[in-house]
Amino acid sequence: MKKVIVLAAAAAALAFAGQAAAADKKVLAIVVKGLDNAFFESIHQGCEKWNSENASSEYTCFYTGPASTSDEAGEAQIVSDLLAKPDTAAMAISPSNAQLIAQAIKSANPTIPVMTVDADLSKDDAALRKTYLGTDNYLMGKDLGEYVKKAAPNGGTVCTIEGNPAADNILRRAQGFRDALTGKEGLAELKGEGGWTEAPGCPVFTNDDGAKGVQAMNDILAANPNLTAFGIMGGWPLFMAPQAYRDLTKPLADNLGSGKLIIAAADTIGDEVAIAKEGLVSILVGQRPFEMGYKAPTVMISLIKGEKVDDPVFTGLDICTKDTADTCIQK
Questions:
Q1: Residue 206 CA to its chain's centroid (Å)
Q2: Predicted confidence band at 20 (pLDDT cuts at 50, 70, 90)?
């Protein structure tokens, strides 16, 4: 494991050094949870768009992260290494493990501005960063939950598919989802409140692995054939394992069409909107990762200059169903 971390950090350091030396610019670093996730590639594209529009700037946007979203220690090591580099002018981090990243920031004790993007630190550690840029994750989860509650007003049995158990953004979505279903705030588990009960074995944490998410859904359905709803807090099963997801849900198409089964999922990445058009997911609540990557350098520069920056800085949401799939994504 240590060897993998060292290799990941070394690769990031070499890439960083090569880009910074070639451009001879101050670096605005964006460190994401993992490079194996299409969501983060959209952040990358936003970062590169900013570079193309600001070619004469003294700053360059540099995107990096561990090879895998499951490599929490690798992300923390990259953060530590880049914070130690003199060319790093500011950093935006999407923490996979909020506590681990907080500890890395504390240990580095940086003098440069640090912010979060896409995922935040816990409330207890929020003072370690200047601002958060990204989705209102609680609202996102609440939108998913409100749809499910409207579709099944009498309640039922529900299962949430979540990612990393230490990822603050996912935990906030799950809380918003439960709060919307029950009309009560702060419940860690549903035991009949508002008519809703969580299925045994739920929530399921998949560490952002699409194939694991599909398998988890299959297992939960096998054990709970009358399940009312899935709340998928990150779209990993749909955009990382789209064929496996289709294979699972096509036999359930009639139940999805009638509302006997509801699947409410986050994101509008990859095949997700196409899957909505096919009627194999009830609703998508999509984020705007390109906007996050595009705005992050500008926010970092404002922080460097000591300008007032709102905290948080929220990006929008796109709500898609089968009927709205052709027009639901903001261009």
A1: 13
A2: very low
Domain limits, the chain: 2-130+289-315, 137-287
Q: Which fold has domain 137-287?
A: Rossmann fold (3.40.50)
As a whole number of angstroms, the distance between CA 324 and CA 92 comes to 33
C-alpha dihedral sign at 309, 29, 127, 314:
positive
- CA quadruple 301, 307, 311, 315: dihedral sign: negative
Give the mean pLDDT of 65-72: 96
Q: Are domains 2-130+289-315 and 137-287 of this chain identical in fold?
A: yes
- On whether the CB atoms of residues 197 and 125 are closer than 8 A, the answer is no
What number of residues does the chain have?
331
Give which of 215, 205, 213 is closest to 239, Cα–Cα.
213
Task: Evaluate whether 174 touches 135 at the Cβ level (below 8 Å).
Answer: no
CA gap 218, 251 in Å, rounded:
12
Which residues contact residue 68 at a Cβ distance below 8 angstroms, ignoring those fewer than 6 apart? 34, 35, 36, 74
Phi/psi of residue 76, each to 5°?
-60, -40
pLDDT at residue 1 in the model:
44
* Measured distance CA(252)–CA(262) in Å, rounded: 10
DSSP assignment letter at 285: E
CA distance 38 to 31: 15
Give the pLDDT confidence of 73-89 residue by residue, as tens digits: 999 999 999 999 999 99
Is residue 130 a contact partner of residue 114, using CB atoms and an 8 Å limit?
yes
Residue 114 has pLDDT above 50, yes or no: yes
Q: Which CATH class is domain 2-130+289-315?
A: alpha beta
DSSP output for 34-52: -TT-HHHHHHHHHHHHHHH
CA distances from 138 to 103, 116, 146, 199, 248 (A): 24, 16, 12, 22, 28
Closest-CA residue to 296 (of 15, 13, 32, 16): 32
